[in-house]
Specification:
The protein is an alpha/beta fold. The protein has eleven helices and seven strands.
């Protein structure tokens, strides 16, 4: 039976180095060499979108890792003057888009389109205004950028621009061309990727679900909880935890859905940081810790699953 292999990579800002190091380790394992060559579709959100675009363009994993270690501090560089002008984060995004734009142009190419990539990709973003001329249809909406041939594709879209769209996390970066980070609805894009395999516009007939094999990679989860059984909170109390709550919730439900649909042909590796460790998506100072964390993570279950379900065929 032919297999259709899907790799899905979560969002998480600078924590993308965790999933990158994990893939480096997997690729170095005996029996798993070249596992990325077998990928049919790479889905990514935010930092996972950048990794997906990089792999699809042919970048080596060590090059992608270098983006986090060398360019991460440039992208997440916030000055005291900017904080002052932003009224201490109450007005204006934390970081400027320009440094990220320069890095994305360099690694993905100024003229490279999605249609020129070596692999199929599915990149999440959120369109704040579809600018429909009919006012009864003008609204915001999720947007899935992809390079499949067929109606309504995005093959002409510039890869680096799509990377900016999916990485424009609200409060961290300004919107780019009216798009923000797809993590607002799909921090874990696994279910989006699975649905894509069933789209008759690009798969005729739709991919047999029994042929789909899906590997989902998280970028490291910090443990959060809120004490209390009857929280009578308003906007200000909910503002800080709400983003993390929604991101973790969306990721968890996608994991549940994919498991129910694919059973043992689905595997998720979502490492969890120790209880005392919390790593925001812009915490570049913890890059060395995240590298060590990813390099010492137990991958035995993932390796066994890949040897059984991913590599054969």
């Amino acid at each position: 039976m032919a297999k259709y292999r899907v790799l899905s990579i979560d969002g998480g800002g600078i924590r993308g180095i965790v999933s990158t190091v994990i893939m480096e380790r997997l690729a170095a394992k005996e029996g798993l060499g070249g596992f990325l060559d077998k990928v049919d579709l790479i889905a990514g959100t935010s930092t996972g979108g950048l990794v997906a675009l990089g792999i699809a363009r042919g970048l080596d994993l060590d090059e992608i890792r270098g983006l986090y270690e060398l360019d991460g501090p440039k992208i997440f560089d916030d000055s005291w003057l900017d904080d002052l002008l932003d009224l201490g984060k109450l007005r204006g995004a934390d970081y400027k888009t320009a440094p990220m734009r320069r890095v994305f142009k360099r690694v993905l190419g100024e003229t490279t389109t999605l249609g020129q990539l070596e692999k199929h990709v599915l990149i999440t973003a959120f369109d704040l205004d579809n600018e429909h001329p009919d006012k009864s249809k003008r609204t915001w909406k999720p947007k899935l950028f992809h390079n499949f041939k067929g109606r309504n594709n995005d093959r002409r879209a510039l890869a680096y621009e799509v990377g900016l769209y999916t990485a424009a996390a609200p409060t961290y970066f300004p919107a780019v061309d009216g798009y923000v980070d797809g993590g607002v609805y799909a921090s874990n894009p696994s279910m989006c990727a699975l649905a894509q395999t069933q789209d008759e516009r690009y798969f005729n007939p739709p991919t047999n679900m029994n042929e789909v094999v899906l590997l989902s990679l998280g970028t490291g989860t910090s443990l959060f909880y809120i004490r209390g059984k009857a929280l009578d909170w308003g906007y200000f109390q909910w503002a800080k935890p709400l983003v993390s709550l929604m991101l973790d919730g969306a990721s968890g439900i996608a994991d549940y859905q994919c498991h129910q649909m694919l059973r043992d042909r689905y595997h998720r590796l979502a490492p969890v940081f120790p209880p005392e460790v919390s790593i925001p998506m812009d915490d570049v100072e913890k890059i060395p810790y995240m590298v060590e964390f990813a390099e010492t993570l137990n991958l035995n279950k993932t390796i066994a699953w890949m040897k059984k379900h991913w590599m054969p065929g």
